[in-house]
Amino acid sequence: MAPPSHCPIDANNGVHHNGGGAVPVETDTTAVPTLPQGSQHLDAEEFRRQGHQVVDFIADYYASIGDYPVHPNVTPGFLRRQLPAEAPSRPEPGATAGALGEALAAGINAVPFTWAASPAATELEMVVVDWLGKALHLPETLLFCGGGGGTLLGTSCEAILCALVAARERKLAEIGSRRIGDLVVYCSDQTHFAFRKAARIAGIHRDNCREVSTRRADAFALSPAELRAAMQADVDAGLVPLFLCATVGTTQTTAVDPVRDLCAAAAPHGVWVHVDAAYAGSAFICPEFRHLADGVGAADSVSTNPHKWLLANTDCCAMWVRRPALLTAALGIEQEYILKAGAAAEGHDVVDYKDWSMALTRRFRALKLWLVLRCHGVEGLRGHVRSHVGMAAAFEGMVRDDARFEVVAPRRFALVCFRLRSPEKLGGEKTANKLNRTLLEEVNATSSGPYMSSAKVGGMYMLRCAIGSTLTEERHVREAWKVVQDRAASLLRKMEIVYNVFA
């Protein structure tokens, strides 16, 4: 991940694990330097200088750790009241990027499983998920400021499992725990395999996981009519619809499920709707992509991974829920627990994040995301996403300009799904999949790059050009296409020779 050229660390803006001090935020951005975009090179020397500052900060922290109070004298809300309600629009001085934020978090070694264990880390996480949610144009009903709430997990796999367990516990409270074998979950045939894995972990019978088929004519999106029919068939069979995993930006082709209509189809059965936007959710930060999130407000939970496209290094998944009480009821612990909030927290709504996920011990992910949001600003992150989308659009244009190739699925974000057409005399569709599999192997065997992936959707084998690296530049995209064209030309020549010999 490329850090900005000028974002020095301000030691006064550190977050101590004991939560005893405030975290001031600078608001004067009049002299902020221009933020490097994703297409520019990493300034290695500046990164090295900032890295040294981080090491010095951590060393000084440990050298003076005895000066900090063992127990902070603060009350819930102390930090949230001192931070802005929204992420800065432009980059701010006094911050650093995610990789260095990760190093800071490791050095401080906060373990924010309860508010009492680390008030500052807990409240910074609450602030950051609201900042990110607002930047992504999520409805307030999913944010703390609107009665919902969010947390930072490792991956979307965890988010799906947490939401599924919450849905299961809510449903079983209604129909009785003995009917767990009647619960049915739904997804499309494009949904990430993590959902089926989560269903098994949550105790859902393998036969009760419905994969609704998608079609190329629908851009591989889940059909509300097909979903409605599948749910009704299960109800007629005496089964209980439980959970739907809708996707905005499927793994193979970045298909976008119609969330609003799917929520409407699921509502009559009291089905929990989770929106998995692991990759494409980051694009919501750009107003031009906001419409793809239409209907998210009717969902019960949403997750996206800032570590995929918003310059936060792995691992960092944000999950929001409309009714946090359902999540904590399912995942919370009933017995007394060490480091619980004491008298200072009486009369306050305290968030103990141990009740929001599977694990009790958890990482301080909020620090790096907070630093990324401050360092790059919302506008800087929009520029980063737009630069990748622009490069993908350019690659798509190159594909369309070459009659030997075709774009297989609509490009919505920064992924181009394409394939080489097989001439009819050389076998046409019968040999197309084999031809493209060989093409991918030869492209990836090129020592200087690029590296592409594949997918087989609707019976078609396709190549996937994903623009996502922080350091990718337009020249890399042009060079990648040149490699594809050269290898394709070579393959077609070989096939032509074989055809002429045996014709």
Automatic annotation (TrEMBL):
Residue numbers carrying N6-(pyridoxal phosphate)lysine: K308
Domain of life from the UniProt record: Eukaryota
UniProt cross-references to SUPFAM superfamilies, sorted A to Z: PLP-dependent transferases (SSF53383)
GO function terms (MF aspect): carboxy-lyase activity
Keywords: Decarboxylase, Lyase, Pyridoxal phosphate
Pfam families with a match to the protein in the record: Pyridoxal_deC
Region called Disordered, residue ranges: 1-37
Polar residues composition bias: residue spans: 27-37
Cofactor(s) essential for the protein: pyridoxal 5'-phosphate
Family: Belongs to the group II decarboxylase family.
Name of the molecule in the record: Uncharacterized protein
Organism: Urochloa decumbens
